[in-house]
C-alpha cells in the first residue's frame, strides 16, 4: 500500500506504485548475475502538473498491534506525525511540481546526492512511514520460514546474528532515525543499516526490506526510554514476514531484470 494519490486534472497518467501484497509463496530467492540498470531521475518539468498525496490507512485496525504497540501510539504516530508530513508535502508541491514522479522517485531525486531539496524530508518521511506500517502485522514476528529465512541465514550466517545486528544498529542511533534491513543491489546481499532523520536506503540506490522508525514518537508512549524493548517486540511480535517475502521477491525481480523506468509523458 503506497500513499494515496489525488491527481490534478492535467495529470500525465503515471500513478503511484503500490506495495499491496497478495498471497504468494516461495522457498528460494535466486539473484542472477545480470547487471542492474539504474533509472535516471527526470528533471523538473516546466509544466504545472501537481500530485497531491493522502494519508494511507495502516493495513489493520489501529488497536490490532496491542499490547506491543498501543492504539494510542498508532493514533498519535499515524494520525498526527505521519499526517503532518502529508500536509507539509502537499503544501510544498503547490509551488514545486514534479512531472510524472511517484513518491519513491521523488525521494530519490530530491535527495540530490546528499544536498536535499526542500521536498526531500517530507517526501522521504511519508514514503518511510507507509513502508513502516506495512512492515508490521498483528501476531507477527518470531522466526521467518522458507526462502526468507534461507536468505537471512546465508547473508548473516544465522537469524540470531541478523537480530543482534538489527538491534545494535537501532540502539546506536544518536537522536532520530531509522534502522533498515535492505538488499544491496550490486552485491545482491541483505544488510542492516541505520540512517539519520529522513534518509533511507532508497537514496543510495538500494532496496529496503524492513524499516523500523526510531524517532521518539514511535515508541515513547509505550516504552518511555526503553528502546531495547521496543526493538525486540518489533522483531518478536510485530514484523510481517509475509510483507518481507513479497518485498524480497520484488527486489529479486528488480535486481535480475532491472527496475522499469517511468515513461516520460
UniProtKB/TrEMBL annotation:
GO terms for molecular function: metal ion binding; superoxide dismutase activity. Its main location: plastid. Its cofactor is Fe cation. Mn(2+) binds at residues 77, 129, 213, 217. It comes from the Eukaryota. Keywords: Chloroplast, Metal-binding, Oxidoreductase, Plastid. The keyword Metal-binding applies. Pfam families: Sod_Fe_C (PF02777), Sod_Fe_N (PF00081). InterPro entries: Mn/Fe_SOD, Mn/Fe_SOD_BS, Mn/Fe_SOD_C, Mn/Fe_SOD_N, Mn/Fe_SOD_N_sf, SOD_C_sf. GO terms for cellular component: chloroplast nucleoid. Residues 145-245 form the Manganese/iron superoxide dismutase C-terminal domain. It is an enzyme of class 1 (oxidoreductase). Its EC number is 1.15.1.1. The keyword S-adenosyl-L-methionine does not apply. Residues 53-136 form the Manganese/iron superoxide dismutase N-terminal domain. It is found in: Plastid, Chloroplast. Belongs to the iron/manganese superoxide dismutase family. This is superoxide dismutase. It comes from Carex littledalei. The lineage of its organism: Eukaryota, Viridiplantae, Streptophyta, Embryophyta, Tracheophyta.
Amino acid at each position: 500500500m503506497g500513499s494515496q494519490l489525488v491527481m490534478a486534472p492535467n495529470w500525465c497518467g503515471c500513478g503511484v506504485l503500490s506495495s499491496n501484497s497478495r498471497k504468494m509463496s516461495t522457498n528460494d530467492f535466486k539473484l542472477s548475475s545480470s547487471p542492474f540498470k539504474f533509472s535516471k531521475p527526470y528533471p523538473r518539468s516546466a509544466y504545472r502538473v501537481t500530485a497531491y498525496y493522502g494519508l494511507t490507512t495502516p493495513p489493520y485496525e489501529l488497536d490490532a498491534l496491542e499490547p506491543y504497540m498501543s492504539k494510542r501510539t498508532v493514533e498519535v504516530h499515524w494520525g498526527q506525525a505521519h499526517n503532518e508530513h502529508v500536509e507539509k508535502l502537499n503544501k510544498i508541491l503547490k509551488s514545486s511540481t514534479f512531472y510524472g514522479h511517484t513518491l519513491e522517485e521523488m525521494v530519490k531525486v530530491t535527495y540530490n546526492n546528499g544536498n536535499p531539496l526542500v521536498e526531500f524530508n517530507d517526501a522521504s518521511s511519508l514514503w518511510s512511514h507507509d513502508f513502516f506500517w506495512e512492515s508490521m502485522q498483528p501476531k507477527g514476528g518470531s522466526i521467518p520460514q522458507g526462502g526468507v529465512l534461507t536468505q537471512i541465514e546465508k547473508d548473516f550466517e544465522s537469524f540470531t546474528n541478523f537480530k543482534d545486528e538489527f538491534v545494535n544498529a537501532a540502539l546506536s542511533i544518536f537522536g532520530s532515525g531509522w534502522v533498515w534491513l535492505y538488499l544491496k543491489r550490486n552485491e545482491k546481499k541483505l544488510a542492516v543499516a541505520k540512517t539519520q532523520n529522513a534518509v533511507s536506503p532508497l537514496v543510495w540506490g538500494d532496496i529496503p526490506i524492513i524499516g523500523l522508525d526510531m524517532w521518539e514518537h514511535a515508541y515513547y508512549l509505550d516504552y518511555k526510554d526503553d528502546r531495547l524493548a521496543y526493538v525486540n517486540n518489533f522483531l518478536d511480535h510485530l514484523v510481517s514476514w509475509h510483507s518481507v517475502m513479497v518485498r524480497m521477491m520484488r527486489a529479486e525481480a528488480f535486481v535480475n531484470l532491472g527496475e522499469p523506468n517511468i515513461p516520460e509523458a
